[in-house]
Amino acid sequence: SHYVAIPGMIQFVDAGSKAVGGPWTGIMILTYMFALMGIQSAPAFTMWAFSNQSPKPFAPQQVWASAFGIGAILFFFTAVQGIGSHFLGANLDMVTNNPDVVNNVIGPNLGGKDLMETASKQGGLVPQLINLMGDSTPWLVGLLSVCALAAMQSTGAAYMSTAGAMITRDIVKRYLLPNASDAQQKLFGRFFVIIIVALALLVAATATDALVLLGGLAVAYGFQMWPALIAICFWPWLTRAGITLGLVAGLVAVTCTESIGQSLGISNWGRWPLTIHSAGWGIFFNLGTAILVSFFTQNKNEFNHKMKYHNFLKDYAGLPAEKRNLVPIAWIITLLWFFFGIGPGAVIGNWIFGDPTNPAGWIFGIPSIWAWQILFWIIGVYMMWMLAYKMELSTPSKKDI
Asked: Rounded CA gap, 146 and 148, in Å?
């Protein structure tokens, strides 16, 4: 079962749905993590970063709040929700084959269906769990509902405001009204926010099927911004033409390897061929195209202009000379963590702490892969601490700017 083992490093199938044991192979997990990195590479996050008064909170937030705190929450509460739902009637097979261990309180609300057969699939689990408390603790249901609305509102407001600002700055001010005042830019920004909200409500109300497609595309599309960020921060030899054409290639690759690709008539492969997430296919073509095109479109004047910025970064945000010897170590730790923690090498965790098919042999009383993931969560927290603090990737510059 994919609950206690990863179904291989990779499976050579033309669609993830055809993979034996499920599509979540080692390479799928890795490339799906790439997709989640698309959230951070979205322009909204860059704007949020620049809007901070000081970068001092970045490191503790990334290491202790995100890596440690959110990691602990995911390991504990997500496992409780996911596994517990099997014993509450969300899994129709459990209800049918093991009725003596199931308290079927979710089943009636699903109309006798399996949760994964409903329109919202696993996304509907938390609302179902909240609904169960409606009679016993209505005050808690109200509190959780307010929390959910607050989370959606804060996230939506941030993305809508940054989208409005980007349209104003990158289109209106750059091409239409180059002399626009601050007041005019604010007015246009608010106007575009209203337009974006109206379009979002229209799609949500009239094209519910499209929401699933758009949701699958959003983070994978966002990940395609990474080559541009790499060019800004690390690789000055990547050219504008290379980044632009690479981005186009990446977006096309993502589209063709997601569900929308089949909607457009692609029949040679399905969603996630070779059990590689669309974000992985996108970055493969994106970065490959960017490097290839940049090789043929080098411009000395443009390169020298970019080096002014990169030299500034090196002077004020570069690693001190006494820490340069840590760079290879940091690379090794990071690459090993990606490969063995969330990549193809994680299949070692299937058996290293006990045979997944023999609970009596589980060394820690839990499936081997669970123990392996907890181990690499702890290692991951250390890795984040090293990168953020020791390698100074998230600490303020020690020089006055």
From this structure: 5
Give me the domain span that covers residue 189. 133-206
Global pTM value: 0.89
Within a domain: 193? yes
Residue 152 lies in a domain: yes
Instruction: Record the tokens describing residue 308, joined without a space.
Output: 């002014």
The gap between the terminal CA atoms of the chain, to the nearest Å, is 55
Residue 296, token pair as written in the block: 């043929």
Q: Assess if residue 242 is contained within a domain.
A: no
Output the tens digit of pLDDT for each of the chain's 401 residues. Answer: 677 899 999 999 999 999 999 999 999 999 999 999 988 888 888 888 888 888 889 999 999 999 999 999 988 888 888 889 999 999 988 898 888 999 999 988 888 889 888 877 888 888 888 888 887 889 998 998 898 889 888 888 888 888 898 899 899 999 999 999 999 999 999 999 999 889 888 887 877 666 767 777 888 999 999 999 999 999 999 999 999 999 999 999 999 999 888 888 898 999 999 999 999 999 999 999 999 999 999 999 999 999 999 999 888 888 888 899 999 999 999 999 999 999 999 999 999 999 999 999 999 999 999 999 999 999 999 999 999 999 999 988 877 76
Is 10 among the domain residues? no
Structure tokens at 254: 């993502």
Among 28, 25, 23, 22, which residue's Cα sits nearest to residue 6? 25
